Amino acid sequence: MSFFNSINISATGLTAERLRMDIISKNIANANTTRTNSGTPYRRQVPVFKEKKFSDSLNRAKSNYETGNGVEVSQIIEDKSPFKKVYNPGHPDADEKGYVLMPNVDIVTEMINLISASRAYEANITSLNNTKSMCMKALEIGR
């Protein structure tokens, strides 16, 4: 595995975790959205990660071992868990019994996921910095 491959893997991790944090932020921002364009409450979104594979067989033929090439977001799915019912008869979206369907977003869960994504982002930065340091040390040896 080359230094550039290590940098690329860290970079894909940074990109994926940044998108994950963006989606979590969107979920938190819409935690009280009771009506979207489709007429239903906002549904929580979740990114699905998958391993990036080598795109061409030449790279596989060059290496003696099979390695991944980072991570990517394969899709963003909607959480199909049920909406929360809240009694609020004065709300414009309340049904005839006074209940309002609220989004299936749990702020505590989203904050835990945000902390996890932030830690993963920091780990990728640390990995990138360590690779950069190794490259610099290798260049110093050559002097």
Biggest sheet, spatial arrangement of strands: 1-2
- What would you call the shape? elongated
| CA(first)-CA(last) distance | 24 Å
Number of strands: 4
Mean pLDDT across all amino acids: 89
Derived from helix and strand composition plus strand pairing, the structural class reads alpha+beta
- How big a fraction of the residues is strand? 15-25%
Q: Could you describe the largest sheet, including whether it forms a barrel?
A: 2 strands, antiparallel
Q: Regions with pLDDT < 50 over 5+ consecutive residues?
A: none
Summarize this entry quickly.
This protein is an alpha+beta fold and 143 residues long. Helix content is 48%, strand content 16%.
What does this structure look like?
The protein has 143 residues and is α+β, with helices and mostly antiparallel strands. The protein has a domain at 3-31 and 45-78 and 105-141. 48% of the residues lie in helices and 16% in strands. Strands 1-2 form a two-stranded antiparallel sheet. The protein has a two-stranded antiparallel sheet with strand order 3-4. Helix 1 (3-29) runs antiparallel to helix 3 (107-141). It is elongated, with a radius of gyration of 22 Å. The relative contact order is 0.21.
Give the helix/strand layout.
Blueprint: H1 3-29, E1 45-51, H2 57-62, E2 71-78, E3 84-87, E4 99-102, H3 107-141
Antiparallel strand pairs: 1-2, 3-4
Helix pairs in contact: 1-3
Features of this protein?
alpha+beta, two-stranded antiparallel ribbon, two-stranded antiparallel sheet, 3 helices, 48% helix, elongated
